[in-house]
Specification:
This protein is α+β, with helices and mostly antiparallel strands and 188 residues long. The chain has one domain: Cathepsin B, Chain A. The protein has a six-stranded antiparallel sheet, with helices on both faces. The longest helix is centred in the last third of the chain and has 13 residues. The radius of gyration is 18 Å and the shape is globular. It starts with 23 loop residues before the first helix and ends in a 7-residue tail after the last helix.
Length: 188
Amino acid sequence: MSQAPEARPSPPSVYHERQRLELCAVHALNNVLQQQLFSQEAADEICKRLAPDSRLNPHRSLLGTGNYDVNVIMAALQGLGLAAVWWDRRRPLSQLALPQVLGLILNLPSPVSLGLLALPLRRRHWVALRQVDGIYYNLDSKLRAPEALGGEDGVRAFLTAALAQGLCEVLLVVTKEVEETGCWLHTS
C-alpha cells in the first residue's frame, strides 16, 4: 500500500519586477511595495515636480531611460503616506527594529559591462528587500527570481555584507507614524 505524498506548503506569492532600461528605482519601489504602483511615466512626473523650471532634470538620466535619484524615491513614498529613513551605517544593525520596517531600499555600486567585457566604471543600483510571510527576500531587479534571505538574522547578514562593501546606502521604508515616533530604532 503506497502512502500519499506529503503535502508541501506552496511558496508565498512574491511580487518581483525584472530590470528594464535604467528603471531600477521604479522596480525597487514596486518590489518593496509588492505591487506595481509606479511606472517610468510616474517617476518622470515626480522629476518634473521636483525641478519644474529645469531644462535638464537633475533627478534622472539625460537620455530619458531612468536612473532616478533618491529624491524621486522619497517623493514617491511620501505620496503614499510612507517615508524613507536613511540608516546611519555607524549604528549597529542590532538597533534596527525590523518588525517596524515595511521594507528596505539599498543603493549599491554596480559594475558596468559591455557584453562579457567588464569596464572599470561603477554605476549605482537600487535594490529592494522585503519580508513576505515571515521570510525576507532580496528583490533585486537584476535577479531572475526573488532570493530568500531567511528571517531577521538572514537580512541582517545581507545588510552587513552590503554595508561592508562601502558606498552602500540603506533606506528604511516605514509608515509616517513609525518615522515620527522613531520606533524603527532600538535605543536600549
